[in-house]
Structures are given as C-alpha cells and as structure tokens.
Fold these 2 entries.
Entry 1:
Amino acid sequence: MHYDKLQEHQQKISHLAYAKGQLSWDESTMMPAGGGEIRAKAMATIEGILHQNQTAEWLAESLEKAKEEPLNAWQKKNLGLLAEGFHARKALSQEFVERKTYILSKSEQAWPAFKKNHDWKGFLPTIEKAFGVLKEKAELLGDALGKTPYDALLHQYEPGLTMDFVDPLFSKLKNTLPGLIQEVRGQQEGWELTAFPEASVEEQYKLSISLMKKLGFDFNHGRLDTSAHPFCGGDPRDVRLTTRYDTKDLSTSLMSVLHETGHAMYEQGLPRKWLDQPVGKAIGMAAHESQSLFIEMQICLSQPFLNILSRHLTQKLGQHASFTAENLKARYHRVSPGFIRVDSDELTYPMHVILRYEIEKDLFAGKMTVKDIPERWNSMMQEFLGVNPKEQHGLGCLQDVHWPCGLFGYFPDYTLGAMIAACLRKQMNKDIPTLDQQIEEEDFAPMFSWLRKNFHEHGSHMNTRELLHKVSGSDLDVDVYLDHLKSRYLKP
Amino acid sequence: MHYDKLQEHQQKISHLAYAKGQLSWDESTMMPAGGGEIRAKAMATIEGILHQNQTAEWLAESLEKAKEEPLNAWQKKNLGLLAEGFHARKALSQEFVERKTYILSKSEQAWPAFKKNHDWKGFLPTIEKAFGVLKEKAELLGDALGKTPYDALLHQYEPGLTMDFVDPLFSKLKNTLPGLIQEVRGQQEGWELTAFPEASVEEQYKLSISLMKKLGFDFNHGRLDTSAHPFCGGDPRDVRLTTRYDTKDLSTSLMSVLHETGHAMYEQGLPRKWLDQPVGKAIGMAAHESQSLFIEMQICLSQPFLNILSRHLTQKLGQHASFTAENLKARYHRVSPGFIRVDSDELTYPMHVILRYEIEKDLFAGKMTVKDIPERWNSMMQEFLGVNPKEQHGLGCLQDVHWPCGLFGYFPDYTLGAMIAACLRKQMNKDIPTLDQQIEEEDFAPMFSWLRKNFHEHGSHMNTRELLHKVSGSDLDVDVYLDHLKSRYLKP
C-alpha cells in the first residue's frame, strides 16, 4: 500500500519531468530567442515543483514502511531507486534548484554567440556562474552521499561511477592511444578523400529519415529536428532526435543521426510497463552512450554498413565518386587529430574526453579555476593531439554546450560508452555469428532483438556493470575496446 | 505583504500554465501520434498541480487580508481577478480537472480521423464523454458563480458575458443577415473568379512570413507553424501562430495567417510589466477575436489592403491573372453560403456561429442531447443558409475542433469580436482620418499604435465593454457592425 502510493506519486513526478524535457527540447529546436527569459523562469519553476514533490515530508516514512511490504524484484529495485533519489534530492533546497535551473538555462542560451565569436573573456562571468552553481550542487550531493564532489556528479550521470574506476581505464587509453594514432596515421599516409557533393538541408533530412527507418526507428513515437548541438531527448513514447546540417559536407550529419538513433532505439526499447518509474528508465549516460556508440561505431562504421551507405547514397542522390564504399571508409576511418570533439575520428575521440575529464577533476578538486581553462585546454590539446586552437576558443574550450548547461561529470560517459559497446559487440559476435552478413543484407532485426533482450528491456533493474557481467560474463574491459580499435585501424 | 505573496505565487501558476500551453502547442504541431497517451496524462497531471496551487488553503485568508493593504488601481484589479479565479477554481476538485483534461486531450487527438471519415456514429461515445465532462464543469461553476451552466461557460471565455446580452444581438443578426445575404448575392450575380495558381507549402510559408513582417509581427518573440486547425497560442513573449496550407488555393491560408497575426499582435502588445498576472492577460476571447477580426475583416479585406496584397503576390510569385486587386476582391468579398465556417465569407459567417450557439444553449438547457446534433445541425444549415451537408458530417457537425476539445461557450465570441472590431474601426476612422491612405502606403505603425494605446496595453484592467466605452463613448452596437457590412457589400 505504501509502495503503491509511492509509485503513483512517482508517476506524477515523471509527467512533470517529461514536461520539463519538452520545454528543453523546444528551447533547442523551436524557441525564438526572445522567449529565452520566460522559458528559463518557467523551467526553474517546474524544477522547483519537481523538487517539492520529490522531497515531500511523507515520503521518508512511506519509503521505510514500503520495505516491509511484499514486493517483486522489480518493485524492490524501484523502491531502492526511489529512496536513493529522495535522499539525494533532500541534500538540495528548492531555492537552490530553482536558481540553478535558471542560471544554467540562461547560460546555455547565451553560449552560441560567444562560441561563434571565440569570446572566452565575454563568456567568463557566465561560465563562472554555471560552474559555481554546479560546484555548490556537487558539494551538497557529495556530503549527502559520502562522496567527493566530482564523484557525486559522476554518480549522478552513471550510477556507481567513481574516479577510482575511471582513472586506470583512462590512464591505459592515455598511454596507448597516442602511439596507436601515430602508427595508424603512418599506415594511412597517402589516403585520398573525394569530397562529397553539396546537398541541401531538405535532401539530407530525407536521407536521414530513410536511414532511421532502415534501422527500425518508430516514427509513430518520435521525430527528427534540427538544433545547434545534436541530441536525443523526449520520452520513450515520443523520442525527439536532433541533428545539424552542413550543406557542404553531408557526411557529418549522417553519422550524427545514426548516433542519435542508437540513443533513440534504447529509449524505445525500455520496458513499457515501467516507463514512469526509475527502474524503467535508462540506467545512466554511459549505458546510454554505449547504445548510441554501438550503432555508430560498432555497426555503422563497419564495412558491411559502409557498403549499405554507399548503395543508399547512390540511390537517393545519384552516382558520385564520393559515394563509393572505399571513399566512405576513407572519410570515416581516417585518423586525423583536430580541434573538434564531435567531428573527430574514433581513435582520437577518447583523447578529447580525457582532456575534459582531467580539467573537470582539477576544477572540482580546486586545483585550478575556470579562468585557467583556456591555457590548460590549449596546452593539453598540444600534448595529446599536437594541435592548438590558440585564441580561437570556439574551436577550443568553448566548443561544447556541456559546461554552459552544467553537464560537468558527463564527458567520461562517452568513452566508457564506447568501451561498453565494444564489449557488447564481442559478445554479440559470439551469439550471432552471421551478424556481418545480416547487416550487409540490411536485416537489423536480429541485432536489435539481441540488444532489447540483453540490454534495453532491463531498464535500471541492474547497473551497467552488473548488466554487462550478466550479458558477457565479464566486467568492463578496456582491452576489448583497444582490440577493437587495433583490429579496425591497424593493418596486420 | 499579503498582496506581494499572492502576486509571487501567481507568477508560479503562470509559469505552469505556460508549460501546459507549450505542451498543447506541440501536441497540435509537432507531436507524433504515438505520443498522445503520455501527453494527455502529463497535461492532466499539470492541470492537477495548477489546481492545487490555485486552490491552496492559505489563499483564502491572504486574498481577504490583501484588500486592507495600500494598492494602486492595477494591483486592486489584479487582486479582484485573483479572488475571482480562486473562487471559481474552488468549485472544482483536483480529481475532476485531471479527469477533464485527460478526456478532452484524448478526444481532441481522436477527432481528425473521425472528421475525415464523416464518422459521426464512431465519434459519438467520445464527444458524449467530452460534453459530459463540460456539463459537469458548467454546473459546478454555475453553482459557485450564481449563473446558469451555459452562462458560466460564456463568462469563462469572456468575463461578464451572458445569454441575456448575446440573445438580442444575435436575434437582430438572425433577422437581418439572411435578407442582406440574398440582396448582396443578387448584386454579385455574374461575378467571376480567376483561380489562383498552385503554390507549394514552402512558397506559401514564405509569403505568410513576409506579410507578418509587413504588419510588424515580432519574430524574436514568436513563430509560424502548421497545424490541422489554425490557432494562436504560446505566450506574449513567445507567440506561436499556426496555419494550414492548401497547395491548390493559396488564398485560404493567407487570410488565416493574417487573422492569427491579429491575435498575435494583441498578445505582443499586452502590458509587459503584468504578463504573469491576470490583470496583464487578454480580457477574454471576444476581445481576442476582436483583434484578429479587426486585422482580417476591417483591414485586410479592405480595398487598400487588397491592393497591397495584389502587389505583394505579383512581386513574390510573378504576374498572374488571379493576383489583380479586382480578382482578390471577387475572392474575398463574394458572398456564398457554404458548409464550412472557417472558409465562409464575412456575411454568412455569423450564421454559422448562431447555429452553434443555439445548439450549445439547448444542449446545456437539456432541451436536446448530443445524439440529436447532426439532425439539428443539418436542418438549421438548411434554414439559415440553404445548404445541407447530410451524411457528410466532416463538412457538418464534425468540422470544428472546438467541441471535441471542450470549447463549449466559445463560438459566440467570434461574432461578438467582429462587432467589437467594427466599433473600434469606426472610432479609429475618427481618430486617424488618413487611415486608408496609410494602409495603402503599407504604413501600419499608426494603426497598431492606436490599438496598443486604446486596447492592448489595458490588459484586463477593464472588461471589454468598459474598454469599448472608454475608447468610443458607446457600448457594443450591433448596428455599427451591420452598417459596416452594408457599406462593404451592398452597392448603393
């Protein structure tokens, strides 16, 4: 009875969070700039009401008493997640979450213009405010959860994640990747790339839609739009994907749509019965990125899929020298250190993430301040990848929306997701020996059926490492990831 | 102090209502069909939270005590509106408003398919449910406000409106218009209309945007999209207009965009300082329709604007026989009884409204049931306009979204709005003798400046009749409206 009441109350919270998610999607895709102020205020108000509901006095007792009730395994796990959410929320005040939401919404709205103008100095007061409010949150959460502030943030995006777990994995990558990159680049010398023909936004949109349909995206429960930064938002029953188009390079948007489709398929595969409860939601953002990167990196960058893509481009846009499978391989497998994380290849990408992770750790440990970011950024870019954006901060520390909108502690999940994806692929190869052939034949049903059964349908019933262990019999293994990279990029 | 607290609390309510408005806009413009169930549930939850906030226990005492505080005229009026809103809300329960919101949202979602298939029988259980929940609301509100159920609904859309006020006005129209229509049709015999060239959605969208810009719509605080039924939603700081396009007849969408722009200009002209308080919102829907119809009927159907439109179409789409001012006049001034309210001309339009008004009155007085609607509809169409949709209910009683989404009591506001617009135009002609010339020269600034000063900026500080009296020295006068119609449509 207590449990039922908690579950019903949680449904209301889920509806409110859904409304806030819709406002946020609209803010990034539809909202005229002048709507920014009322939008930020309204989102702060809703966050405040969410907070009130999530910290209501009666919850403490009900959460205790519900433990005595006869519950099945999913209900038990759900109760545990509800209790944890309550405990974490209690560490914050309504005044704080309203202030934080307003500050971060305004900061996110302000960011594009400063990025465009490479104006770090102009943006500094705004990003200092955003960091300040996140530091406050991290400290409050950390105190309540018995974690360091930065671990509290890591945990918030991917339950159970700690620096102690991440450090050795990233350390191995940091020691291995630069050499690997150099070796691969040596082998790739002389690779030539034929430029893609110009393609209108309309043409690229249609191309994206047809690829999403090929993969099985359910357009009765989702749509594709345009935003400055691609993302997957909304709700499993109404998933909102976005991308952005470069009319001079259709290859960029294509892969980002496929990436976001991976996120969307995870959402659309979550257990229907539990969608409004924590146990029915995605485990965390490393888990989420594992699904997008499984589709993007493990599937869409593989030769069988590049063959599909080649046929598809020719069919939709006509014959063009750039549409051969060889040229697509040259485009997507070429390793080339650059400034921009989202445009980077599979091998250099983790170095971008590690750079951000190290800066974030030092910021939250008080070893550096926000003011120091550009210098640190540029010197690490030089060290890690041999490139330096100098004063062009729009190509440097201003390139990502994450910090302006307060997503500190999120970046590691991209690379952890890539590792999980590699582990999942290894197991899938064992379970579906004919996978490559199926992909070549454009039959994605067995693959998604495997992902649903082994990953999506579990919701948050287990955490990511438990789930991975259940699926593959092993914990997250950085060597599986490195093996994948070597086998794809190094000639024997 | 009590007043300040009330005002702050109201701001939170306004933010929540804004969020609900955004969800509703998205539902009509963007949402994939499969998102309907969670959308309806979420909107019901938010309506419930709005209700909780609007009926909180402490409000009763604060509303009383605030009366003793030193307040200026706007604050006093605002307090009065807050008290009235509280009183009306108290008549309903949270359970009821959640149920009502869910039922109406689902009913609105279900309507288009039944309309398309002329399937009255199939839609009957749904529309009976929608009417049932509205009847329940009307009775609860009526009891609390000391009004009949239908008067309570009229009042909700346009404060102070009663059947006693509407009946004699509509009775005069009902007695005058059929004869006038016949006379005008006789004079128009032989009028020929050149069909418009086909125009793509993209072309029509661009045309719409350029006309909205011409009128002064602020795109930094609003946008134009597509929906099955044109509407103006959103917030004064982010106004969301919609239209629908017929590629075979660009004239339909054009005028509907201009109509919605009239709504939008009212919203964008409301007093900035008060936007989140009841005193800063539009007075009611008759007032709102007066602004859309002022633009559509009083301005855009006038000869000077048809001249502009002729030049504009030629400039944007090239020379075409249908783009002459004469042909535009033949298109927009031709009186021709038809099935569809939104496609009808200025003279027959009120008959469509009176038909709906009479059906609604009888439904709420228990003189007929929902089952009787089609027969009653068709016989009144025959009587009023000499046309009969028979079993094609999509062209008959299923044509409007209003009843499916619960807007009983709204229709009269269209024709009252047209009357108010005529009265405003009469006064404006006195105050701006060179108005026609200014319009011909595409100078709309003096006109909007007059509307802002005399109408928009007053928010809800006065009700519509008080405001009209202040502006023109007279009450709403049906003869001013009839004079306008005669002078436009009857040759001397």
Note: The beta strands of chain A are 222-226, 232-235, 238-243.
Entry 2:
Amino acid sequence: MSKSSKKYILGVDVGATSVKMGLVDANGRILSRALFQTKAFASKDAFVKELIKQMRALLKKSGTGKNKLAGIGVGLPGRVDFKKGIVHDLTNIKGWNEVPLKKILYKIFKTAIYLDNDANAFASGQLIWGKARVARNAVCITLGSGVGGGLIIEGEVFRGSNFSAGEIGHVCIDINGPSCGCGANGCLESFVGNRYIASRAIEKIKKGQKTLLTKLVNGDLKKITPELITRAARQRDAFSVKLWEQTGTYLGIGLSGIVNIINPDMVIVGGGLSKAGKFIFKPLNRELKKRAMRQHLKVLKVQNADFNDDAGVIGAASLLERER
Amino acid sequence: MSKSSKKYILGVDVGATSVKMGLVDANGRILSRALFQTKAFASKDAFVKELIKQMRALLKKSGTGKNKLAGIGVGLPGRVDFKKGIVHDLTNIKGWNEVPLKKILYKIFKTAIYLDNDANAFASGQLIWGKARVARNAVCITLGSGVGGGLIIEGEVFRGSNFSAGEIGHVCIDINGPSCGCGANGCLESFVGNRYIASRAIEKIKKGQKTLLTKLVNGDLKKITPELITRAARQRDAFSVKLWEQTGTYLGIGLSGIVNIINPDMVIVGGGLSKAGKFIFKPLNRELKKRAMRQHLKVLKVQNADFNDDAGVIGAASLLERER
C-alpha cells in the first residue's frame, strides 16, 4: 500500500502517569488527540481494554477508517522486543510481563503495528520529522521521572543486541554516588531524575537553606517539582538557580562520556526537565566543553528536542514512517 | 584485483614505544615480522623515513613483490581521518600534525593503504579474524598505557561522525576522581591506565604498605609495571591482588555504563593489562553483573581478545580485508 493512499498514523505514548494518543499525518502533525490516566487501572488487562477503547474512539471521532490508517505506533516506558512486538516489562506500571501487545492490537485493528521503548520512539520522531533529520549520529535524551536515551547511528535508530541500547540514565558518574532505582549506585539518573532532584532540594531545605520554593508549595515540600524549580529560578531564587546549575553539571558530565564513546554530530535534549532552558543548558554546555574531547567537539551540536509534550506521540507514530 | 591473486597484507602497528609490523596472510596469520623503537627519532620526518625503510626491508626479505601485496594497513595511537588517510595528531609521539600519511605511503608503495586509530584497528582485527566474527554489536577495549576502545555496530567497525568514536577511557566514573591526561577528571583511564595503576601502587607503598613488589624492583618503585604486579599477585602478594581487584572493579564500573548504552552481545578485553587474567576479570565480571541491566546481561559475553601482542599488527592488516 503506498504512503499516499493511507495518510494517517495513530501514535500512542504510554506513560506511567498518562497515556497520550494522536492521529498523525504524513508530515508529523497531530490532527486529533486523546488522553487518559494510567494509574486508574488495577490490572494490565483492564488497562489494555481501556487503551483499545480509547484508540477506537479516536479513530471513529476523526473519521479514520481502515482505508486511511497506515498503522499504529506505540511507545512504552520499559523493555520492548521491537521485532516481535512483545512488552517484556514496564517501569512504574505493574502487571506487564511478556505481553504480546502487537498481536493483541493486530487482532482488533488489522493494520501495521510497531511497538518500541519510549526513548527509542522519541529518537525516531526526532529522526523522521525533527532536527535529527540532518544528523548522521545522534544521542537523544529525555529527562523526566527517568532518564531515557535513544541512539541514532548512521541515520537509523540503533536498538542494540536485544533492543535495550540507549540506557543513558544508568551510566555511573560517581562511584561513591547515591543508590539508584536500578540497583546500582551513582547512575546519572540518580542525579538528574525528577524525584532525585526534588529530594535533593527537600534535603537542603530541611537543613535550613532558604528558598522561594517553600513559599510556592506552602510549606508542603513534597509538592516540589521541576516546573516549580524553574519558576523560582526565573524569579531569581538563588537556591533554585543553583539546583539547576548542579543538575546541568551532572548532565554534562554524563553526556560528555557518551559523546566521547559515540562521537555524535548531535545531542538532542528533551523531556520535562529541558524546559528549564538556559538554567540547565548553560552548565551542561560548559561541562561538555570541558570534558568531551577536542576532536569530538568539532562536529557536535547540542539541540533542544522538537515537539515539546507531543514528542512521545509523534515519536510513536514515526515508527511507521521508517519501517513500512 | 581478486583476493587470491594478492595474498599478503602488510600490517603496521605504531605505538609510542615501538613500531611492530608483520606480513599477514588471508587467514590473519603473521608470516614475517619487523620491529623498531619509536623514541629513537627526533622528528616526524626521520620517523616516517625509518618506517618506510623498515617496511621496504620486510617486503624484500619475505619476497613480497607488488604482485603479491594486497595493501598496507596502519594503526596509529591518535586521531586519524580514516577516509582521507590523514593523521591529525598522535598521543605521546610528538611532531605529528595533519600528516597525509596515506599519500606519503602511496607514493612509495603504490598499493591500497588504510590508516586508522589503533583501537579501531584492534576492533577490526577481532571482527575479521577473531572472536567478534560472531558478534553483532561489540565493545572492544585495549588496556595499556592508555585505555583504547573500538566499537562494532551491526557487524561493522563504527567510527563516529569524525572518526573519534570509542574513547572509552574518557568516560567519567567519579566526579570527584583524580585528574586525567585529557584535561578532565575521574575518567576511566585515570583509574586503569598503566601509569595510574603504578602511581597508585607507589603512593600506597610510600605510605608504608608492605608488598613483594618492593623486593621485585629492588626498592626502585619507578620500575613497577603491570607485569610485575601480576607476577606478585601470582605469588599471593595480598597488596598486588588487591590492586588488581580495585582495577577490575573500576573497569567493571566503566564497562557497565558502556554496556547499558550500547547493549552489545560481546565485550572483548585486550592489551597488556588483560594478561592479569582472573585477577582483573573476576572483579570486572562481578561489577558488570551488579551494574549492567538485567536485559543487557542476557545477551552479553565478556571475552579475552585474540592474538595477544600481535593484535595491533593483525588489526592493522585487517583494515584491508573489509574495505577492499
């Protein structure tokens, strides 16, 4: 079937908090959307049922019949067998264990279906419709509750020997560092993952450090988020500025090692944390210049990711563009 | 020209201490050898002159005329433009700055010539004639005065966006770590490079720790080498065993991060340090099991490199096998 006869792709971005989906056209634009909360479902089966219901509703709402649907792409936060379309397990979503989601979805939708790890889907979106179109080798990083990574090698998403490449968050940058959710310690994620940043902030505040954040959350420190830290930093809260300064430095240390290994011409930074903008990018770039090797820096560009909060949905849809 | 009509390749392994060369057959076996000291030459020009003289002599000695020579492969310890055959600069060999070595050699030998970074050449040798023949994705590491790395991605040596990929030695594993020759600090090389190991040993001995090493070097601590540390460890010198234990642990920490990024099915460890055998491999494997992710470990094999001290020469020769 040619591209032109089937114009639309359904992109689904499964997250630990919410599932976003969108009908995406051949230029990577979202025409119609849907969203539901992940946590509302007690079991994997109930979750998959709702997923299918919502997908059907979105296709119906937008009048996309089979003759217009090129396929479905799904990004998931966990271990996914890209070839077989099986979900090994998910991070922060319980009950997923070797789920043949591709098969399940195919039975219903009878169309081309691609599943991938969400960070790979993100990288794919940047490659097909974003800045990475012009990259030969790129390291894509998404900063959120976890640190996700996707690699582009010689113009293709590189998934590794069993679809697990790009675990950028689990590179040790400090042999004496804090313990990480993965079981090791000193991982990049344990320095720049959302909750680790928040708990670093809380710890400091409890030790008596003054910050606008305390006021912004009315003393309820558990409510501290990266968004609030950025808001406080914009209001020149020295504490928050310094928190981003440290976070950007850690990121730069981790990324410089990855740059030295991969020698990419592009690093793309996305995810919620990247909204901190210059507060993070300035120390990140400084550290890269200090630690990445001279030859590597000659070809390297650091870029903000395209598509903001839509990067997941667009990335998932993009899986169809390259593969079909 | 077919492979069978031109049977031999001249492989040249340029090191900071010595230059080794060998005539290599189509099966990766060295038929004839030559060696000279690198340090003896005051200038780059004198060095290149000697290099050419020795290459000619080896070809003549072995009776390899133009009709039998398939080409020349050269591995160099530094930044090399693999495509253009230009040496940007070398580590620990002065006076090399944008040297068009391929052109220089072609004028004399009128045959196919490939230059590459020595770690890439090493990886190429393992890929063409060694254990990595069966690997899809592999991380090859050579442990010596420096820490060199070569990546095999989807069955090919991966060189990055400007031929600088694989700088495994310059990944930060400790944000508070010692300063490294590259200008940064806490790099893997600053923990496991030969001279750093030796100086860690010397420091401890000076602080009063007892070891067989002191006797083995007659009190001249500057003479401590990895070979001697291994010799002492084999004689159950607790100090030396612990030194390798720490070194293997550092290596495992560094490699686990790289494994999490690349998701290789093989890690190949070569170079002088790998001769420490179990003293290094045991802690290395333990640390990998602790820090590399479950999914990654499922497909991973850690292997000793093939070809021992010939890995450089054979690797250099192998550059011709894949490319012609």
Note: Chain A touches chain B through 50 residues (CB under 8 Å).
